[in-house]
Request: fold
Amino acid sequence: MRKPEKRADFEPGRGYAKTDWDAVSDNPKWSKEDFRNARPFAETFPDLAESIRRARGRPALVNPKKQVTLRLDSDVIARFRADGPGWQSRINEALRKAAGLSK
Reply:
């Protein structure tokens, strides 16, 4: 299905009247001066921009996990994966226990 073209000017016979077009076409085209005078949202509304930035995503963890690359024997990985989802967390617990850091 093809999207209809966006029109910049009113064209009669398209299913709406000129008064309808004028009622929804209240956003004028920007001039070069408008673009020159435009400022970034964060500069214009710093408090609002900061509140939006803070409100996104999960809350920060006190002790976040670190991503590392670790080469393990395939039979070790197969054993942990065999128990199903959560195998990486179980490896983490086994490592904590081996290092004497159990919770």
